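Subject: Sanity check before I submit

Could someone independently write out the structure tokens for this chain? I want to compare against mine line by line before I put it in a report. The sequence has 71 residues.
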Amino acid sequence: EYERAIAAAPDSVGAYLALGEVQGRQGKWELAWATLERYRARRPADPRLPYFTGRLAATSGLRLDEGEQAL
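---
Independent answer below. Compare away.
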């Protein structure tokens, strides 16, 4: 469902965030990071990326240095 939304609107942040949130809730942290990276590749200047990066690092416990630097 979220992948279809991303395909339909690949520059829209909402579907990426929703997909990453679901992946995180399922404990699929590497997939959540991959989803964030896909969005970053599409919209590298999005001013919300530092927040999303920091939040994912804090909730996953992964890539903490990257999350800290982003914030």
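---
OP: Matches mine. For the report I'm noting this point. The radius of gyration is 11 Å.
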